[in-house]
Amino acid sequence: MTVVNPGIGFVLLLVASAGQVGCSSSGASADAGVEAAPISCGASVDCPDAQMCAYPVVKNGCSLVGQCRVLPLPADSPSCAGPTPACPCSGETQDIPACWGDYSPFAVLNVGQCPGDGG
């Protein structure tokens, strides 16, 4: 014959119920802390306010699509000193803003002057 302690059942019921207290839904999704994927773009006008169209700086990146990103300063800002020359897929040397880190305002064929363009 098994003797069941009625106090244990009551304690288990309280513990199970306590797990439900304060668990009302706030309307926030479980993914609230997950950052949304960047929006694809061809130019900054395609991006939401305060974002700019940027391409990762990789060699032979001509097939890449731009992504709307929050960057420290616009590409043409005078405060973005120390640009790096790069050869975009258009073949005419342009500068990558130093303050953009690993991003460029254009798809990059290679970092440095374009062939036949003084480099």
List keywords for this structure.
single chain; alpha+beta; three-stranded antiparallel β-sheet; 7 strands; 21% strand
Question: What are the SSEs and their pairings?
Answer:
Layout: H1 6-18, E1 40-41, E2 52-56, E3 66-69, E4 84-88, E5 94-96, E6 103-104, E7 108-111
Antiparallel strand pairs: 1-3, 2-3, 2-6, 4-5, 4-7
Please outline what is shown here.
The protein has 119 residues and is α+β, with helices and mostly antiparallel strands. The protein has one helix at residues 6-18, and strands spanning 40-41, 52-56, 66-69, 84-88, 94-96, 103-104, 108-111.
Explain what the structure shows.
It is a single chain. The strands form 2 sheets. This protein has a 4-stranded antiparallel β-sheet with strand order 1-3-2-6, with no helix packed on it. The N and C termini lie far apart (94 Å). It contains 1 helix and 7 strands. Strand 4 and strand 5 form a beta hairpin. It is α+β, with helices and mostly antiparallel strands.
Order of helices and strands: HEEEEEEE
Mean pLDDT: 76
* Shape category: globular
- How many β strands by DSSP? 7
What is the makeup of the main sheet? 4 strands, antiparallel
DSSP helix count? 1
Oligomer: single chain
Q: From the helix content, strand content and strand pairing, which structural class follows?
A: alpha+beta
Rg of Cα set: 27 Å
Spans with pLDDT under 50 lasting ≥5 residues? 8-30
